[in-house]
Amino acid sequence: MVEINGNLDAKGIKFAIVVSRFNSLITEKLLEGAIDCITRNGGEKEDITIVRIPGSFEIPLTAKKLAKTKKYDAVICLGAVIRGATPHFNYVAAEVTKGIALVSLEEEIPIAYGILTTDTIEQAIERAGTKMGNKGFDAALSAIEMVNVLKEI
Ligand code: INI
């Protein structure tokens, strides 16, 4: 029997983190969580490049550009799409989700999906370092595991 697992060792891994400025109150907390995850698992701050962009809609193109440079082992995407009262939510949430999946498949590197899609700002706060954890931390952890599992494969 062969079983392949990725470990959670971030040592030597080069990360690009794309952070949306829209809802920055939330996304800056996601960023803190992602950096905390990387450095607590053996990664170095010098191996992290942070790219800030206007909104979540711009994330897939930015992730693609970063992947194409071949300078990074993984791209971590952080955004917060909050429904509020606007139908805009549906378009932005759908495009960013589809776009990230497409870029990962096309570029063949892990692109972590750290996008909150919530009905309210309160639900977003809960997932950005309060009672439901920090989804930026979780996205970084999945990026580390995926880099290592793809190495093993
Ligand atoms: N961008 C977000 O990241 N979150 C949102 O909740 C959001 N809403 O609801 O409008 C949002 N819109 C901006 C969008 O991502 C683009 O930056 C903008 O449309 C310019 O292309």
Attribute tags:
two-stranded antiparallel sheet, 153 residues, binds 5-nitro-6-ribityl-amino-2,4(1H,3H)-pyrimidinedione, alpha/beta
Describe the structure.
The structure is a single chain. With 153 residues, the chain is of the alpha/beta class. Helices cover 47% and strands 22% of the residues. The chain has helices at residues 24-40, 59-69, 88-107, 121-126, 135-152; strands spanning 15-20, 48-53, 74-82, 111-118, 128-130, 133-134. Helix 1 (24-40) links the parallel strand 1 and strand 2 (48-53). The mean pLDDT is 96. Residues 20, 22-23, 54-58, 79-82, 86, 88-89, 92 line the site of 5-nitro-6-ribityl-amino-2,4(1H,3H)-pyrimidinedione (INI).
Run of helices and strands = EHEHEHEHEEH
Ligand roster: 5-nitro-6-ribityl-amino-2,4(1H,3H)-pyrimidinedione
Spatial separation of the terminal alpha carbons: 15 Å
| Class based on secondary structure composition and strand pairing | alpha/beta
Number of separate strands: 6
Q: How large, in whole angstroms, is the Cα Rg? A: 15 Å
Largest sheet: 4 strands, parallel
Helix fraction bin? 40-55%
Please state the average pLDDT score.
96
Low-confidence stretches: none
Q: In DSSP terms, counting alpha (H) and pi (I) runs of 4 or more, how many helices?
A: 5
Q: What is the 3D form?
A: globular
- Percent range for β-strand residues: 15-25%
User: Regarding quaternary structure, how should these chains be classified?
Assistant: single chain
**Biggest sheet, strands in spatial order?**
2-1-3-4
